[in-house]
Design brief:
The chain is α/β, with parallel strands linked by helices. Helices cover 46% and strands 16% of the residues.
Length: 362
């Protein structure tokens, strides 16, 4: 048996055997050993156990493939949590069943980094989406891409993670310290919102990268701009084909960020994590907050405060947008006259629709 530490790679899978086959093959192609692959089948209509037979010849003491099948469909996030709970390795990767690695040295390089720096709990690389090859998913600041792998403090990473920063990495390009994440409870409620809690809130389950915030709060992060993986975009994927997802996507983020902000964990960068979570709450589009969420969470004093601050910021954004629009119209009238101003407004309404032209926030 290899003397290297074990890496657990868990796959929350449902149907799409052609994609999952590619996922498993990319794991096998990694230069690192030992690896355990945990294939978690969420009661697919056609069992994915056939893949076990296809890859049977690759199994060895250094490459273990385990198959789990649920008796009923428990949804993606709960299946992901189940996969995490099965991990026996020191390091773990949550690779989705429609994602695959293209860097065969991802595990060997990142395990080496974390073994040499015990304070490093996360390694994160860049990725492409299947239908956007050539366009990186992460917009990493230049000062953090000097070398192939660059070490950031947890606070530095916390401050750039998010839609107002570098974006969010796909899980396939993230490897993490399993024992440390378990201690923080990062794959369970209140930092993940599994189906049992989401149903009470009238929203869909979500995890919204809480584990990355938590692990960053206690140590360092290694970051790379190199392309590690490809995120698949099958038409029947849950996020692309489910209308309910598009209606309430991100609603769990309000709950999760609130729980991060009120966390009682201790860590060298915990203040930075709480500050970032508070900022995300304030920036959250208040018109999308499900009031039932606030009721279930007892609408406590701090929650009320965050809700009202978020609402005031929402009003400010609208007001600011109106002012910019008015200034622009006045400028056009001065430069091009009344007739051209009317043409500008009418063209804007024609291209965007009346509501978007007049009220859309930018």
């Amino acid at each position: 048996m290899n003397k290297n530490v074990l890496v657990s790679v868990f796959i929350a899978a449902y149907d799409n055997p052609s994609y999952t086959r590619k996922t498993i093959q990319s794991i096998i192609d990694q230069s690192y050993r030992p690896i355990e692959i945990l294939l978690c089948d969420d009661c697919s209509p056609n069992s994915l156990e056939i893949l076990m037979q296809e890859f049977k010849e690759f199994q060895s003491p250094d490459l273990i493939i385990k198959y789990f099948r649920h008796d009923k469909n428990i949804r993606g996030l709960d299946n992901m949590i189940f996969g995490f709970d099965q991990c026996s390795g020191k390091y773990g990767v949550n690779i989705q069943h429609d994602e695959w690695w293209i860097d065969c040295n991802f595990l060997s390089e990142t395990v080496d980094i974390m073994e040499k720096d015990p304070e490093c709990n996360l390694c994160i690389g860049n990725a492409y989406e299947e239908d956007n090859i050539g366009i990186k998913m992460l917009n990493i600041p230049n000062k953090y891409i000097i070398n192939k792998w660059n070490t950031l403090t947890g606070e530095e990473y916390i401050n750039i993670l998010g839609s107002d920063g570098m974006g969010y990495p796909p899980w396939s390009s993230v490897i993490f310290n399993v024992p440390n994440l378990r201690k923080l409870g990062g794959f369970h409620y209140p930092y993940n919102l599994p189906k049992s809690y989401a149903d009470k809130l009238g929203i869909l389950p979500d995890e919204f990268f809480a584990s990355q915030f938590l692990l960053s709060s206690i140590g360092n992060v290694a970051l790379s701009d190199n392309i590690i993986s490809i995120r698949g975009r099958p038409e029947n994927s849950f996020t692309l084909s489910n209308n309910d997802w598009h209606k309430c996507v991100g609603q769990a983020a309000f709950v999760i960020h609130y729980n991060l902000m009120t966390s009682n964990h201790k860590g060298i960068y915990i203040k930075a994590m709480k500050k970032r979570a508070k900022k995300m709450l304030i920036l959250y589009p208040v018109e999308r907050i499900n009031v039932k969420i606030l009721e279930i969470l007892n609408f406590d004093k701090e929650m009320k405060k965050m809700y009202y601050i978020s609402y005031l910021y929402f009003i400010f954004r609208k007001f600011n947008y109106y002012i910019r629009n008015i200034k622009k119209i006045i400028k056009i009238q001065k430069e091009k006259g009344f007739k051209n101003t009317i043409i500008y407004v009418l063209n804007r309404i024609k291209s965007k629709g009346f509501i978007s032209a007049i009220f859309q926030i930018k």
